[in-house]
């Protein structure tokens, strides 16, 4: 039986140092999971390299600005280059047949939604650092839709707003990975109840063949009529003998 494990570390979960930043801790967690559960394990990790949500919260309310000020060191040690290195290490070492890791870029460039008069802070909890129940619910929905989307089309801009729940394509693997995203053609918004194309192709082929045969017969008939119009009328042999005059014949 396969096991699926989600790693949803936020910027505030690191230690605020070069060696203790979130990306490094996520990589260490993946290594530990691989050591303990090396077979039939699927790990989904969020790339929390963006600070947009917490930056919006700080700009919106003074209370959030005060509470998030203690995490300035965490935000400073959350480099894009470190996350890029983590993704390369994961792709090289943890993309195996029985153990695979997918890093979702949802929180690479996140932002809060807007209300008519102000920024919507409801996705965040009372400390403005972690998600509220509503925020987690919307994040879980975005994660679900992301793992059903092929890798290069996954969104990098999480917005805590309600979206439609995606359904897996029955012709493709349930969870998208780097490998099966290349091998399987993703067909979005295709009606599964649509009639098959084979009968339509057969009818079109028969119709096209009938038209071609009709044109061929018409061309042959026209060529025969045209050839018969150029034939000369040949008189039978001896029909003009009466008009032949001999040299010694007297003219009467």
Properties at a glance:
8 helices, 3-stranded parallel beta sheet, about 250 residues, mainly alpha, 2 domains
Number of strands: 3
Structural class: mainly alpha
Beta-strand content bin: 5-15%
**Order of H and E elements:** EHEHHHHEHHH
Helix percentage range: 40-55%
Number of domains: 2
Query: Could you tell me the radius of gyration in angstroms?
Result: 39 Å
Instruction: Give unreliable regions as ranges.
Output: none
Give a summary of the structure in a few sentences.
The chain is mainly alpha-helical and 252 residues long. 41% of the residues lie in helices and 7% in strands. InterPro entries: PLB1 (IPR038885).
Q: Mind explaining what this structure looks like?
A:
- The structure is a single chain.
- The chain has helices at 22-36, 52-60, 62-68, 72-76, 80-93, 133-147, 178-183, 197-229, and strands at 3-7, 41-46, 99-104.
- By secondary structure, it is mostly helical.
- The protein has 2 domains: 3-183, no CATH class; 196-223.
- The model has no long low-confidence stretch (mean pLDDT 82).
Question: How is the topology of this model organized?
Answer:
Elements: E1 3-7, H1 22-36, E2 41-46, H2 52-60, H3 62-68, H4 72-76, H5 80-93, E3 99-104, H6 133-147, H7 178-183, H8 197-229
